[in-house]
Amino acid sequence: MKPRRTRFASNAAALAALALAPLVLANQGCSASSSEPTATAEAQIRAMHRRGIMPKRDAMNPTRNAASATLTYYGGRVASSLQVVQVLWGGSGNYPSNVTSTTTPSIATFYQQALNSSYVDWLDHDYNTVSPSPASGSTKTNQHIGRGSFVAQYIITPSASGSTVDDSAIQTELAAQIAAGHLPAPTRDSAGNNNTYYALFFPHGITITQGGSSSCVAGGFCAYHGTIANAGGHEVYYGVHPDMQAGSGCDTGCGNGTVFGNYTSVASHEMTETITDGEVGLAQTNAPPLAWYDTTSGEIGDICNGQQGSFTGSDGNTYTVQLEWSNSQGRCITSIPGTGPTNDFGLTATSSTIAVTAGSSATDAIDTTIASGSAESVSLAAGGQPAGMTVSFSPATVSSGTNSTMTVSTTSAVATGTYALTVTGTASSGSHTATVQVTVSSGAVTSDFSLAANPTSLSLTAGASGSATIASTDTMGTAETIALSVNGAPSGVTITLSPTSVTAGASAALSAVTTAAAAAGTYTLTVTGTAASGSHTTTVALTVTAGTTGQGIVNGGFETGTFSGWTTSGASETIVSTGCHGGTYCARLGSTSATNGDSSAAQTFTAPSGATSLSFWYQESCPDTVQYDWAVATLKDNTAGTTATVLNKTCATNSWTQVSATITAGHSYTLTLTSHDDNYGADPTYTLYDDVAIGTGSPPPPPSGIANGGFETGTFSGWTASGASETIASSGCHSGTYCARLGSTSSTNGDSNAAQTFTVPTGKTSLSLYYKVTCPDTVQYDWATVTLKDTTAGTTVTELAKTCTNTGAWVNVTHAVTAGHVYTLTLTSHDDNYPGDPTYTLYDDVVLN
After folding, report:
1. Prediction pTM value
2. Could you tell me which of 647, 644, 651 has the C-alpha nearest to residue 624?
């Protein structure tokens, strides 16, 4: 039996690891005659800084703390490029339209505009972690603060119900939604620092409690932000925003503007403090993870409580924000003129080693990239060359994002050996270096070669691919080994050489794969061959023209023997040549030995004219359960901004199975194929994918009739299992050897499901199934339920209403169906995770009559 493994901390341990960061926002609607808060009230507010509460109160002097404030850096992280995920707590509640909409002006557009405006640009000037030395004496994180973006809006269906929700339930729900894939996992910057912030918004009528305090009441709070230290291996930044509409209680004491203006003012406070001090709630002393903090007044927004300003976004709308404290200006501000994204660049050499014969020359490409901010002029120079060697660059100054050709020239008197040349790029933002090892051989040439391309030019429509042959010729002496490399490809174009090393006289294939996003233009691809005798080059002129009707899937059958056209990521992605669905090759995601986490292959494409469907085949080897291992596939419509799960999480060892989805011609899509393994050595899971194709007809219908309705395969083949616990049982079944057990004999948390989509064959008029529920609890907490969705008619019926019995008897349920209609049947058992009364349900003999 597999050992028990902890996927998330226990409830008690998880709550101990979850902390809130400090936020204080004054009543921005106070009259001038309002009295100062008492000393006791001030002390309570100071205490609330460490608890993360944003107090709601009737009076406060907005600038009370500003004159003596200074934010001190204690060594913790900042957010280098904040990515905001807006989360609506349920989709059926009463929200303001500006909260649920993603069109301008809305909370969604506020985040996007604010994160790309002067309101955020100045933060790097005052609060980067590269310049200051931490007051704590610790090491610093060396981060710049750049612009960010709004990721998307998500609506969750929380398991917590009722009109009062405690912060502990919010933390647990957020962690569970991320773990289930309903919300995107947090992202990190290149140094591994968290960048994602989940901004949760609640509907009218929901009261939030935290640490003995409540939202939107006298002495309560307007909002707060917090930190989850560890949710499934992720650190999570989040903010909680109660309803602020009339009658909510937060319509007063939380701002002095319109409802939407008060929403954005509070949101700006939370967002800016997360950028400059996202982990404050985890800090125990004035040391990391504390970042920018004033031990008297709190964080960047707390010092400026009650002060509002505004900025105008690129969408033409003016948004209300709270002013934030500036150390350099000594006051509360919305921006500092002249500040903006920090410019930086990257510098690399295409070939880290080159060879040259004394008396001759060799070349290498020096590539620059825009690391942040905008392109800048980069001057190139070299050092480390011996007597008899000179280095030049053409051009000597480039704009970051372009490249230069470095030429190493030698005289016959240069000493043989290997030299480390340091190439230095200098710009107004600073300097970066790259090292190139140059090996000088004797001037007595005994071998040489040449390179030639055929054809010498390629013309491709964006989204298409092409190839050329790179031929080498042995021109002198003994044939030698030539290492091949290529540079000059623009963004959206992938160039590969196969093989990357040839013996003089042999050839290699150059493959050019373009995406629909490739920019139109003419580019020079330089192929460099390097051998012991020296280096030679040949060029291919690549012309890219804009696509008009979409080019569809590239290398959908993986018959190039590579992932060309695809972007791979994760634990293990391999091209295999055995057991494939069609042709010679297919993709294997995951491995025959255990791997850790997702293995994915993704491709972005434009649906061609006339396209109506996308299909692919998969074959999974999953000896585990869907709780731990699975295959899943998603299709994101980049044009419409929607994402569909075309293959729900499934864990089975099955034959090749086809999956289809509807697409719209002219739309841009991203297809992501994934296999997930939990790195448990005894049950490695992997998935084969093949024959990804676009069709012009309707997608094939679901299978006719119920597949494996009696579960007599001993697996969930034909079904999609999801949730807390789904197993095949072999005792106590209604008939035959096997049946499905949803839930467990020990407590489980939430729903356990098995679902199947099918077409009703001609002559069939009813669906029948048997269930036996073991429920020692009450239907308020635990239950079994069955739903039947008629996709053709667009209706859903509850075939079995929530029921909790403990009779031990099998019960039959039937419902009428219509021949030719497509249905989805979902079997469910729900347990509330209370250990004293675990609930589970057996299902068997699902048939059409």
Report:
1. 0.43
2. 651
